[in-house]
Amino acid sequence: MVKARSKELVKMTFLDEALSSVSSMEGIDAEESQIFKVDGKYSHFFEVLSGSCLIATTWRELPSSDEVTGLMSLKAGDGALILPGEPYLLKITSDSEVSEFVLGNYVQ
After folding, report:
1. What is the mean pLDDT of residues 22-32?
2. What are the chain's domains?
3. Helix%, strand%, coil% for the chain, nearest 5
């Protein structure tokens, strides 16, 4: 999981080359999760447009775990990149707007 200001994070193409195309992509409204999600094929980029959110991670080796091993607080203008295979849980505060971008397929 990587956190930075959104405008800076999209420049970090060494993390995920699809980040360079985020500005031309249409994001979807991110949905809050009640359990940890894992996407083994795609990276997910979250951008906080207004308000704030929390993103938690757990053990990559134990994706069924509900133990929080990392927690990030994001505010308007922040972004976070979740890499393929990384379990995450998203909590969005009320009256907040968070966009989600599903990036390239990296698993053959």
Report:
1. 87
2. 2-105 (2.60.120.10)
3. 10, 45, 45
